[in-house]
Specification:
Helix content: 55-70%
Distance between the termini: 42 Å
Shape: rod-shaped
Strand content: under 5%
Number of helices: 2
Radius of gyration: 23 Å
Length: about 100
C-alpha cells in the first residue's frame, strides 16, 4: 500500500501535468490572439516552468518508488531467512560482477 509521501508526489505530478496541458492547449487556441510581445514570452516561460516542475516531481516520484522497492527487497530477504541461523545478505549499493 502506498505511503503518504507517494500519494502526495503522485497528486502533485497530476496537478502539474494537468496545468501544463491546460496552458499548452490554451496558448495554442483561445489565448493565441491575445498573446503578443512580452505577454507571449511570459506566458510560454510560465508554461515551460510548469512543465519543468512536472519533470522534477516525476523524478521525486522515481526516488520514492526506488526507496519502496529497496525496502520491499530488504523485507523479503529478512523474511526468507527468518528462523535460520544464517544471517541474510543485505543488498548493497555497489556490486562487482566482473570476473577476476
Amino acid at each position: 500500500m502506498p505511503d503518504s509521501a507517494h500519494i502526495r508526489v503522485r497528486r502533485l505530478s497530476i496537478i502539474f501535468l494537468a496545468l501544463a496541458f491546460a496552458m499548452l492547449v490554451g496558448g495554442f487556441t483561445f489565448l493565441e490572439p491575445r498573446l503578443r510581445g512580452l505577454a507571449f514570452i511570459i506566458y510560454w516561460l510560465g508554461c515551460f516552468a510548469v512543465a519543468g516542475a512536472a519533470i522534477i516531481v516525476a523524478m521525486l516520484d522515481l526516488l520514492v518508488i526506488r526507496r519502496d522497492a529497496r525496502k520491499a527487497q530488504r523485507d523479503l530477504i529478512e523474511d526468507s531467512f527468518q528462523g535460520t541461523s544464517v544471517k541474510p545478505p543485505l543488498p548493497s549499493a555497489k556490486t562487482d560482477k566482473s570476473p577476476r
